[in-house]
Amino acid sequence: MSRPAAAVQRVIKAYDVRGLVGEEIDESFVRDVGAAFARLVRDAAQPASQIVIGHDMRASSPTLSAAFADGVTAQGLDVVRIGLASTDQLYFASGLLDCPGAMFTASHNPAAYNGIKLCRAGAKPVGKDTGLTVISDEVIAGVPDYDGPRGRVSDRDVLADYGEFLRSLVDISAARPLHVAVDAGNGMAGHTAPAVLGPISSITLSPLYFELDGDFPNHEANPLNPANLVDLQNFVRETGADIGLAFDGDADRCFVVDETGAAVSPSAVTALVAARELQREIGATVIHNLITSRAVPELVTERGGTPVRSRVGHSYIKGLMAETGAIFGGEHSAHYYFRDFWGADSGMLAALHVLAALGEQDRPLSEMMADYQRYEASGEINYTVADAPAIVDSVLQEFASRIYAIDHLDGVTVDLGEGRWFNLRMSNTEPLLRLNVEARSADEVTELVDEIGGYITSGVKEST
Predict the structure, then answer these.
(1) For domain 5-157, is the CATH number 3.40.120.10?
(2) Which residues form the Alpha-D-phosphohexomutase alpha/beta/alpha domain (predicted)?
C-alpha cells in the first residue's frame, strides 16, 4: 500500500529509521521497510540471499523486528535472528555471515521511540545516499509483491562468538588486575559486557544498572549528557574502581570515567586508541571528525600516522574508512571505528583498548590520559533557532577581524589562532544550531562560549 510522503520521510532519516512507536512506527510500516530493504539488497550488484536481524531490550523491539522479518521473507530472502543484541554485535553478525543486517533500536532515545539501523554485507552502512532514499521512495509508492518462494527464518546465538572475536583483537593478557565499573543504563551493555569482559581473569567487574529495561528507570541511556554520568561517577568513587565505563542504550558508544570520577574526553580516548593502532601499523591513516580535539591530528602525526578530517556522522566516517583504508576512526560523540571490525563502530572494542593500555602500566587512569589531553573543550551546546544561516552569518561578522582561518567542511569552523577555534553547524534532523569550542584553557573556553552564545541567544532559545 502507498503511504504519505511526509509521514515516511519524517521517520526514514539521513542515517537510520526512527520515530514514536504507534504514532510514526508500527508493524505495518516496518513490514514495508523490511520488504523494501530486501528488494534493495536482493537486486544489488552482489545480491544477498539472507538478512540478519537483532533487537534491543525495548518492549516494542521483538514485535517490530518480527514484522520486519515478515516483510523480508515475503520478498524471498531468508532471515537469521540473533535476538537480543547490541548494535555492534549486529555489525559483528553482518561481518561474520557476510550478509546485510537490521538492528532494532532507538539508541539513546526515550522508551516511546524505536527504530532500525541498516547495513549491507560486511557491516557497510546504509544511509540516505546509499539506500535509505530508495527504501523511502518505495515505501511511499507501495512495495511491489514478490511472486517467488517465501524465505525461511532461523535463529543463531552469536554472543559468545562476538565476545571472543573482540578479545582476539586486543591483547589484554599482560594487564595488571583492574577493578572496572560499568554503567549499562539498563541498556544492551548489560547483555554484552559480561560476555566480553567476564572471561578476562584480570578484570573484576562491578555492574551498575545491568537489568535490561527499555523504560530506562534509572537514567536516560545517553552518556553524552553529563547528568547521565553522575551515577557512574559516584559508583566509581564508592567502589574504588580503577575505571568506569558507560554505554548508551544500544551499547555502540562508550564513555570513560577515571578513578577520581572525572569524565575522560572522547577525543582523548580517540588519541589513545589511535596511538595503539599506529604502534602496529606505522604510517596508517586515522579518521577524526572535525569537532574532535586538535590534539588528535597532532598526536597522530607525531606517532607517524596520517590524520584525515571528516564531517560529523557515521556514514561519512565509514565512507572515509573504506576509501582510505584507515586503521581507526573516532568521533567526539564516543563512536569508535575499526578496520579490523569491518570499518564499523564498537564502543566495547574501544573499551578493551583503554583497559589494555591502563593495565600495561602502573599509573592511574587520570595520569595516563593526561598524555592525550592538550586542550579544553566546551562539549556540544545546542540552541533552538528559527534561522540558523542568518545567525551564523551574524556570528562570523562579529569575529571577522579575529579570524585566522575558516572552512566549511561541515557548517563553519573558525580558527582564531593560538589553539582557539569554534564550529557552528546545523542539525540534519532538528531546528538546532550546534556549537563546539576548544582552547588551551578552561577560562578561554568559557569566555568564547559566553561571547558566541550571547550572539546566538539574541532572540533564540538555548536547548541543551
Answers:
(1) yes
(2) 11-130, 161-261, 271-375
